[in-house]
Amino acid sequence: MIIPLDIKAIICLREKITMSLKQPEQKSGHIVLPGERLGVIEEFIPDSGTYVKDSIIYSKIVGHALMDILNKRVSVYPLVNSDVTPKVGSIVLGQVGNAQTDNALVRIFKVGTKKISGVFGGVLHISDVSDRYITSMNEVCKSGDIIRAKVISVKNQAYHLTTQDKNFGVLYAFCSRCSTITNIDHYELRCPKCGNIEKRKTAIDYGVEIL
Predict the structure, then answer these.
(1) DSSP string, 108-173
(2) What is the rounded CA–CA span in Å between residue 157 and residue 115?
(3) Is the pTM value of this prediction over 0.70?
(4) CATH architecture assigned to 84-169
(5) Burial class (CB in 10 A: 0-12, 13-18, 19+), 106
(6) Are 5-80 and 84-169 equal in CATH topology?
(7) Is-contact 50 74, C-beta < 8 A?
């Protein structure tokens, strides 16, 4: 029995859609090839390096898939730009999300001079903060602070950081009382609004970095 051409086309299209739906969605940081599925437009907004077909988002290039969960965006950055993804030795900027007694979790948003839209998690441990003895991470940074650090290792999909250098540390600190950006005064940080004085492990160019 010969199936009419239009029926064949419909069957072929249905098979393609079925295969596409079975493709697993990529995770942030994974290398993807052109045509690989990244997600659907109901979940993400397609950004650079992607295209949409039949409501499904695909990679347009060979690169790293970056899922910005917060802003619901998906992008693909080309492999030729090696600074887009943090690696051991990279200088990164990030915002402290949670500072505990012996470590702080950092959301990396800039690698070198290049901003990224994906979500890369960093960990700053108290042993990698300074050459001098530190009793608590509260002396180093607090939630919301912007820091500059260096990637020293990658373990369990987390970038382990260090600030053991005068160029590394907090670049912008927010007052714990009123959330105002503090000014540096010798080795202390003073809030210009409420006068609160706090301590941090600051970088030598505190307040200068253009974000």
Answers:
(1) EEEETTEEEEEEEEEEEEGGGS-SS--S-GGGT--TT-EEEEEEEEEETTEEEEE--STT-EEEE-
(2) 20
(3) no
(4) Beta Barrel (2.40)
(5) buried
(6) yes
(7) yes
Distance CA 152, CA 128 (A): 9
Other CB atoms within 10 Å distance of the CB of residue 201: 20
Each residue's pLDDT, cut to its tens digit, for the chain (211 residues) gives 444 445 555 445 444 434 433 444 555 567 777 788 898 999 899 988 899 999 999 988 877 888 877 778 888 877 654 446 888 999 999 989 888 889 999 988 889 988 776 668 899 999 999 888 888 898 899 998 999 999 999 987 789 999 999 999 999 999 999 889 999 987 789 999 999 999 999 999 999 988 7
CATH of domain 5-80: 2.40.50.100
Q: Identify the bridge partners of residue 122 per DSSP, sorted by sequence position.
A: 106, 159
Burial class of residue 208, CB neighbours in 10 A (0-12, 13-18, 19+): exposed
Q: Where are the domains of the chain?
A: 5-80, 84-169
